[in-house]
Amino acid sequence: MSDLVANYSGVTEAGCDEAGRGCLAGPVFAAAVILPSDFYHPLLNDSKKISQKVRMSLINEIKEKSLGWCVAMVDHTEIDEINILNASILAMHRALEGLQTEFKHIVVDGNRFKAFKNIPHTTIVKGDGKVFSIAAASVLAKEARDEFMRELDVKYPQYGWKKNMGYPTKVHRAAIAEHGISDYHRKSFKLTDSQLKLNF
Description:
single chain; 200 residues; alpha/beta; Nucleotidyltransferase, domain 5; 5-stranded mixed β-sheet; 36% helix
């Protein structure tokens, strides 16, 4: 039985999460989801804690039962221009902007956010494992980004993106060292270092 709550604030709220923040290549995706206050699903959780098969089985149900949902992205060039934290927040703002249903509160996974249209917000560390709407957003964002990277893998098979999705695995870093960077790598990241760093 799930320990997640359907509603955190007691008013109509949008849950937000992002995917791809720690990647070396590709965009960062974000989703915003508004769920009914009585929503419940025993399998819905942080997207990293459930299998792709479960995530795929949840997508249609999330979209059908939600009061509103939107997925948005910020590409690698924008990430290089404004840094990954700002890009992650911008992606969430774009997702919120795309919602067609009015909401009075925003719940966000993590501990950093910037106000969106003066709507009150709450940041929740590990919120994707605590609030259903954030968990739903994490699933939509991750699967949208994974699909994007699988499509890129067809053009750039040498980096193994269909498996690593652009994350800094040994295989990915070795491929960068051997082949150089692609048009989709984030140049502000230290792509061949053992630790992921940002140039602000």
